[in-house]
Amino acid sequence: MGSYKARMMIKEAKEEARRRFRRHRNKNRLATPGIHKCIIVLDGLKPTFNIGKIFRSSEAFGCHEVHLIGTNFFDPAPARGAFKHVPAKFHSRFLSCYAELLERGYTPFILEPGQGDPVMDVNLPEKSAFVFGHEEFGISFEPDLFQEVKRLTIPQYGRSQSLNVSVAASIILYEYARQFTCRDLNPQATHSCKETI
Question: Where is the tRNA/rRNA methyltransferase SpoU type domain positioned along the sequence (predicted)?
């Protein structure tokens, strides 16, 4: 009896999240891009928690858009209203998102622990698109099949070598905003403001 009640509570919570999403999605259609050109791509994330948090960070750091792959709804409550400010685009598969990004001149980056260049050592292009995969299964595609996809890593010094996806997205957005804020302050700068820190 207890497991039935728990399943029903979960089902009701999902339905309420869907209703919230529909309400907020109508407002999202009027959202305008942030001040920065970077794009966040969320590849198959679970609809319950991290997506809303990533929208919140995306709004805080002036992200241009968030693209969602394989997700037709999510709970906007953790976004704390940010979903209405950051344009969202929905794709059924990575391939359509990838084609759109390339057509618009974006460089796609995936993040993998211990692989790729440390993000703070990379001179990020203005049109950067950062791809984050499912919390358990990672990205839905084989990166070697997509030549333009670059690899980045966030250096970690603990034993687990694992960050929550919303935390990783926040770190990347901070680094991107830091580099471009510094370039805006000093147009002759070819890289971030490391020298002034």
Answer: 38-174
Q: Which two tokens stand for residue 31?
A: 């959202």
Gap between the Cα atoms of 49 and 33, Å rounded: 23
For residue 195, pLDDT over 60 is answered with no
CATH value at residue 185: 3.40.1280.10
Supply the pTM of this predicted model: 0.87
**Backbone torsion region of residue 81, taken as left when φ is above 0, otherwise alpha when ψ lies between -120 and 50, otherwise beta:** left
Could you list the residue range(s) of the whole structural domain that residue 12 is in?
2-196
Task: Please name the helix (run of DSSP H) or strand (run of DSSP E) that holds residue 170, with its range, or none.
Answer: helix 165-185
Rounded Cα–Cα distance for residues 182 and 65 (Å):
21
The CA distance from 119 to 175, in Å, is 8
pLDDT digits (tens, 9 = 90+) for 59-110: 999 999 999 999 988 988 888 889 999 999 999 999 999 999 999 999 999 9
Structural domain count of the chain: 1
